[in-house]
Inverse folding.
DNA sequence: GTCTATAGACAGATAGAC
DNA sequence: GTCTATCTGTCTATAGAC
């Protein structure tokens, strides 16, 4: 049973997550989040001392989302190839959002990378990318490609990120559709 | 002979270009640009009515830079393959900056794509990407790949963008070194 | 009475416009 | 260099549950 506080905290994080994605962290104010969540901004400090603390909660949420997703695929799908196919399909399935706002991981990583004083929130997207890379390496290793598993994982992830960035820049899903097709073919011919 | 006004305007654009790249547009204030350029911010309004107008001048500068570069390569290098090799070498040559601040085109495109009211500055990075894509297609066509020139160009550019984004995210040039090598091989086997 | 949670006003700093 | 708006961050009075 969740306490009322936990529930309210969750609503703030949810609203912030959505606004950070659509408008960017820098262009989202507490007033915006207050309006979207229906919670007065005076309350925010009861739950989060600074904006960065709230940002960290949002990034943790995205990290947990991926951790759960990857874990689910490992139990639901027996074949490593099927898991990888499922992975490269993410931008395609979410293409409407990717076209409009970019990749939720890549775009926030790019935004946070610009701030000069290196803070904890800056290394969080890195950790989530790392989680995905390690998972990919595991699948490639299971396919007998232990030696170049790291290389293949980097290739897959950079492909996906490049396609998402350009699909967003041009607001054209041809980038995502084509690259996804190419990646499926890449996995099949391993 | 440049007038003093033109020179001052150029200095403002130059300082803004640098700061927009390193800190991001949103985190760069007029005060920062004033300090970097040595020009009082009170004067800015004489040259640029709004921050967006200054941003447009910066984006135009980057566009002109690429237009000149691509044009130079067409006269200096006879072989289309050599031109393409030169192109994919850009992130590698600039890798120190790319690792620290990302791709000057990709990162600003990602940042501007987050603002909601669609403004003119948002479509400018798109135009520069378009310039590069058209140039690539021209080279592929000269190599007898007219049919899939657009496809190959998208592939090349998304590869480069993905590698730059992740090299920046991880602050590790392995992404750029590896992907560049791969792209050289890709061009050689055309 | 005490703890959790809420609401609104307000300070200080800083932004861009002029 | 001034003006005004807006931002993050703080303070305090208080409501309700138990």
């Amino acid at each position: 049973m969740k306490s009322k506080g936990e529930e309210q905290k969750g609503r703030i994080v949810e609203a912030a997550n959505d606004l950070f994605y659509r408008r960017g962290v820098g262009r989202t104010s507490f007033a915006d989040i207050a309006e979207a969540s229906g919670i007065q901004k005076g309350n925010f400090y009861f739950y989060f001392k600074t904006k960065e603390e709230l940002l960290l909660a949002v990034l943790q949420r995205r990290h947990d989302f991926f951790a759960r997703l990857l874990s689910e695929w490992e139990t639901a799908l027996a074949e490593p190839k099927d898991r990888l196919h499922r992975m490269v399909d993410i931008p395609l399935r979410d293409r409407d959002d990717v076209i409009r706002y970019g990749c939720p991981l890549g775009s926030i990583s790019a935004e946070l990378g610009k701030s000069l004083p290196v803070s904890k929130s800056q290394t969080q997207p890195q950790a989530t990318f790392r989680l995905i890379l390690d998972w990919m390496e595991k699948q490639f290793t299971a396919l007998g490609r232990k030696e170049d598993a790291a290389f293949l994982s980097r290739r897959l992830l950079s492909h996906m990120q490049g396609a998402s960035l350009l699909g967003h820049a041009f607001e054209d899903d041809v980038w995502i559709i084509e690259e996804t097709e190419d990646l499926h073919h890449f996995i099949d011919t391993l």
About this structure: Residues 40-42 of chain B lie near DNA strand D (CB under 10 Å from a C1'). Residues 1-49 of chain B form a domain with the Arc Repressor Mutant, subunit A fold (CATH 1.10.10.60). The interface with chain A takes residues 22-24, 26-27, 101-102, 106-107, 109-111, 113-116, 125-126, 129, 151, 154-155, 157-163, 165-166, 168-170, 174-175, 178-179, 182 of chain B (CB under 8 Å). The mean pLDDT of chain B is 95.
